[in-house]
């Protein structure tokens, strides 16, 4: 092996090692495919009489090259954090709306604390109900590295609030959104989620509609033509989500907001079911839309 060939091999090996280290966040299959492409590029350059240094220069600096690769594959750390922060802000907004809704139910009443003689009265009830909104927003204030840990702690805490406190069911959509903020960025960190994920959340989308239809068929309650159309639309959106249609998530999230508003303005014996369905639609729809958003490809210039 000549000295020039040895230097070329060293340059190629160094480039491959650098690229491999920077692509550890990808799946092994994705990383191996990228490295194979890089090796093929160096081999083609050698066949064309170009040096390994020239081949490396045509690919670009390893940091820039791997940034482009991650973006093309949908794996962008900034994108992952944007997804988490967006879902947390949505959770905070839903928590504020839930606090207004819950306080409306107790305008002049007292709110007893569980396992305690302590009670909250008057405007204190409103402030008490705003605590989950503050909790939901806390991870946004954390550093990027600590945000996932904070989000997990907040999801657990909000779930405990739902189970342990009076009227805690009102904040169930907030807890679901917190769990979505924890899990969705993980599922979508390598790009668009796999078919299994899409089918799962598409099925979740259709569950409230199927339950409504089943209740109507057994005579638990009546359903008019508008109810039938809503059921059909929910199932249709669930199918679109299962096949990976990005805009279906936005439609579903908007529908979820409409359900929350409807249950607040027209409370009845189905308020709980409608409220929870609205929260589920917002969480699933927003997660789907964000997970299928296009990554920002770094500039080559």
Characteristic key phrases:
301 residues; mainly alpha; 3 domains; two-stranded antiparallel ribbon; 13 helices; 2 strands; elongated; disordered C terminus; transmembrane
Number of strands: 2
Question: Averaged pLDDT, please?
Answer: 81
Helix content: over 70%
Number of helices: 13
Number of domains: 3
Transmembrane segments: 87-105, 125-144, 156-179, 199-221, 228-261, 273-291
Pfam families: HAAS
Keywords: Membrane, Transmembrane, Transmembrane helix
Protein name: DUF1700 domain-containing protein
Model description:
It holds the Pfam family HAAS. Keywords: Membrane, Transmembrane, Transmembrane helix. The chain is mostly helical. The chain has three domains: 70 residues, no CATH class; 112 residues, no CATH class; 110 residues, no CATH class. The protein is 75% helix and 1% strand. The two termini are 37 Å apart. The C terminus is likely disordered.
Tell me the layout of helices and strands.
Layout: H1 3-22, H2 28-47, H3 52-59, H4 62-72, H5 77-105, E1 111-112, E2 119-120, H6 123-129, H7 131-141, H8 144-164, H9 172-187, H10 195-217, H11 225-242, H12 246-265, H13 271-291
Antiparallel strand pairs: 1-2
Helix pairs in contact: 1-2, 1-4, 2-3, 5-6, 5-7, 5-9, 7-8, 8-9, 9-13, 10-11, 10-13, 11-12, 12-13
């Amino acid at each position: 092996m000549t000295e020039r060939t040895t230097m070329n091999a060293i340059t190629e090996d160094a480039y491959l090692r650098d690229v491999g280290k920077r692509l550890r966040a990808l799946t092994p299959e994705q990383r191996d495919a990228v490295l194979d492409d890089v090796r093929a590029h160096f081999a083609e350059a050698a066949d064309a009489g170009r040096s390994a240094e020239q081949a490396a220069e045509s690919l670009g600096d390893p940091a820039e090259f791997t940034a482009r690769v991650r973006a093309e594959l949908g794996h962008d750390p900034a994108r992952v954090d944007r997804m988490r922060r967006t879902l947390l802000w949505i959770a905070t907004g839903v928590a504020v709306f839930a606090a207004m809704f819950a306080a409306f139910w107790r305008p002049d009443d007292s709110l007893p604390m569980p396992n305690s003689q302590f009670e909250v009265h008057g405007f204190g009830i409103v402030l008490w109900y705003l605590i989950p909104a503050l909790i939901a927003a806390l991870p946004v204030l954390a550093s990027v590295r600590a945000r996932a840990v904070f989000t997990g702690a907040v999801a657990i805490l909000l779930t405990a609030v739902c189970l342990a406190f009076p009227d805690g069911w009102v904040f169930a959509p907030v807890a679901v959104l917190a769990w979505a903020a924890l899990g969705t960025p993980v599922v979508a960190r390598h790009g668009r989620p796999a078919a299994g994920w899409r089918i799962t959340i598409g099925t979740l989308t259709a569950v409230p509609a199927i339950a409504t239809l089943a209740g109507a068929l057994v005579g638990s309650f009546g359903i008019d033509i508008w109810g039938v159309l809503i059921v059909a639309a929910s199932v249709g959106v669930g199918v679109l989500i299962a096949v990976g249609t990005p805009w279906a998530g936005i439609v579903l999230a908007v529908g979820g907001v409409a359900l929350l508003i409807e249950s607040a303005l027209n409370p009845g014996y189905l308020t709980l079911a409608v409220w929870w369905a609205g929260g589920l639609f917002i969480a699933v729809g927003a997660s789907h839309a964000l997970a299928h958003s296009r990554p920002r490809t770094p500039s080559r210039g």
